[in-house]
Write a structure and sequence with these properties.
It is a single chain. The protein is mainly alpha-helical. The protein contains 8 helices and 3 strands; from the N terminus they run αααααβββααα. It folds into 2 domains: 20-79, Fe,Mn superoxide dismutase (SOD) domain (Helix Hairpins); 92-192, minor pseudopilin epsh fold, CATH 3.55.40.20. It has a 3-stranded antiparallel β-sheet with strand order 2-1-3, with helices on both faces. It binds manganese (III) ion.
């Protein structure tokens, strides 16, 4: 059985950008619902019982895949966040890699923000490293994750409406712009290894 992971911060830690109310819905209701749905599938299919979450994602389709991937994506997203820092930026190796692949940190943010804003409908926008260890911005639809691709996920933003509707209503660009103050670059850099 899979469990809803705890948030890696207090539920008011992301205010005033992401409210405790959003986290109540997004973590306790949406993320929990994916865990509950996944566990219902596991209960009905004993072949899933001893698999890791990543193995379930790699070997399943449709409802099982969608719910398992959403459990994974949300946990990854929470880990990408921390409390507000006005002048928030990556350091060391990650910063030099970003400069190499995007020109500058500002250029990277501009491209990533545009990808997240124009990611049509519900989905996720990722910073990932490809098989040759170059950084790329990749957008996925619905529950899609990068687990069964050659990409290594480094950073993600959830652009489903439920991620921002309470705090930003329909203004996804404002959510995306504010997201930069919340990124946990230590986690992102840790994913490069
Ligand atoms: Mn979500």
């Amino acid at each position: 059985m899979f469990k809803l992971p705890e948030l890696p911060f207090d539920k008011n830690a992301l205010e005033p950008i992401i409210s405790a109310e959003t986290l109540d819905f997004h973590h306790w209701k949406h993320h929990q619902a994916y865990v509950t749905n996944l566990n219902n599938f596991v209960e009905a299919d004993s072949s899933l019982e001893w698999k890791s979450l990543e193995d379930v994602i790699k070997t399943s389709s449709w409802g099982v895949y969608n719910n398992a991937a959403q459990v994974y994506n949300h946990t990854f997203y929470w880990n990408c966040l921390r409390s507000v820092e006005e002048d928030n930026s990556p350091k060391w190796e990650l910063l030099s890699q970003i400069k190499k692949d995007f020109g500058s940190f500002e250029d990277f943010k501009t491209q990533f923000s545009a990808a997240a804003i124009w990611n049509f409908g519900s989905g996720w926008t990722w910073l990932a490293s490809n098989a040759s260890w170059d950084l790329e911005i990749v957008s996925t639809d619905d529950a899609w994750t990068l687990i069964w691709t050659d990409y290594t996920s480094l950073l993600v933003i959830d652009v489903w409406e439920h991620a921002y509707y309470i705090d930003f209503r329909n203004a996804r660009p404002n959510y995306v712009e504010s997201f930069w103050k919340l990124v946990n670059w230590d986690f992102v850099e840790g994913n490069m290894k």
